[in-house]
Design a protein that fits this description.
This protein has 326 residues and is α+β, with helices and mostly antiparallel strands. Among the domains are: 42-89, SH3 type barrels; 220-318, no CATH class. It has helices spanning 4-15, 29-38, 98-116, 120-132, 138-152, 157-164, 172-183, 185-195, 201-213, 220-225, 232-245, 251-257, 263-276, 278-281, 290-297, 301-304; strands at residues 46-50, 55-64, 67-72, 75-80, 84-89. The chain has a five-stranded antiparallel sheet with strand order 4-3-2-1-5. Helix 7 (172-183) runs antiparallel to helix 8 (185-195), helix 8 runs antiparallel to helix 9 (201-213) and helix 12 runs antiparallel to helix 13 (263-276).
């Protein structure tokens, strides 16, 4: 048996898209109907190859005005010539050959073993832990993630997570990326960097946060672009990540955001400033207003270096590129 998420992965790659990648185009309603009929185990004389990529066995009963009436199992369907890429004439009767099915499943499982590096049982264990990471209880989420980390000492869990990530949904993707970071931050870095420009804001926010936790100063420019993101969660993640980096270059941007109408942004920026300039603040009153901060920072301009200015930043993605849940 294939494990749950692997089976879902193959299904998504066949009919749609996951949060981190594209699959094949979605089948139309006729294709889905035909796919359902295929499972019924019909008697057939021909194999139909549709333009959607679906193929099935059936028997043409009649053709009128370019429309085929096809017997497919217990149902009869109509197919226009334009929907058919090829009709293959053969002697297949459409009966289900269980030996062939078992051989096909075994071959697919063997292929998954090779591509993921895990056995079916191991894949199922990882799938179960990913589901547990969705828990509303933080202790359960941490326990599941720690179990993945521990499992990496025995088998290459990262290879499997990299394999399924393109087809995971938007709920699971940020959780899996964080788990990859905890398992092996360096190996996960390319995935994290790519995620900063993902269409789904929670993935962008998570990846920006992880770059901050990595203390990767080289990522400062990419993180800073999150300050002008259309989504509040991404902007806040960028503020905290830059503070974690010790990026005094972001000081002018933080000072400007003290006047932001949203108190979450202004509050986070104030905390970031106090973190960045804690040694200097220790010997003087804590600045409050934009004017106070500008006056306080005047003697320290040389420490700021190449200042990050909000007006000069380009967003990570355009607002119209944001993922819309259908």
């Amino acid at each position: 048996m294939m494990s749950g998420l692997v089976e879902q992965t193959h299904r998504r790659r066949a009919i749609g898209r996951g949060a981190f990648g594209e699959g094949y185009p979605m089948r139309n309603l006729m294709a889905l109907t035909v796919a359902a009929l295929v499972a019924s185990g019909l008697a057939a004389a021909d194999t139909f190859h549709l333009t959607t990529g679906v193929q099935f066995d059936g028997l043409i009963l009649k053709t009128e005005n370019g429309v085929h009436t096809v017997k497919a199992g217990p149902r009869t369907i109509l197919l226009r010539e334009a929907e058919i890429a090829q009709i293959e004439t053969n002697d297949r009767n459409g009966e289900l050959n269980m030996d062939e099915v078992r051989a096909q499943v075994a071959a697919e499982v063997q292929q998954l073993d090779q591509e993921t590096g895990l056995t079916a049982e191991q894949r199922l264990r990882v799938d179960e832990l990913i589901v547990k990471m969705r828990s509303a209880e933080s202790a359960d989420r941490l326990n599941a993630r720690d179990s993945l980390v521990a499992m990496q000492a025995e088998v290459d869990v990262m290879k499997y997570l990299e394999y399924i990530l393109p087809s995971l949904g938007h709920v699971d993707s940020p959780l899996v990326i964080e788990a990859m970071f905890v398992i092996d931050a360096l190996r996960a870095k390319p995935t994290i960097e790519a995620g900063t420009q993902h269409a789904f804001f929670e993935i962008r926010a998570m990846c920006i946060d992880l770059l901050g936790r990595m203390r990767d100063k080289a990522s400062m420019g990419q993180i800073a672009r999150g300050l002008v993101d259309a989504k509040m969660e991404v902007r806040l993640a960028a503020v905290y990540a830059l503070a974690n980096l010790g990026a005094k270059e972001a000081t002018p941007a933080f000072v400007e955001q003290l006047a932001a109408p949203d108190q979450r942004v202004s509050g986070a920026s104030r905390k970031a400033l106090e973190t960045l300039w804690q040694p200097e603040i220790a010997s003087s009153p804590v600045p409050e207003s934009v004017t106070d901060w500008k006056g306080f920072l005047s003697p320290y301009e040389a420490q700021i270096g190449e200042a990050i200015q909000l007006a000069a930043l380009e967003p990570l993605i355009l607002p119209e590129q944001e993922f819309q849940d259908e």
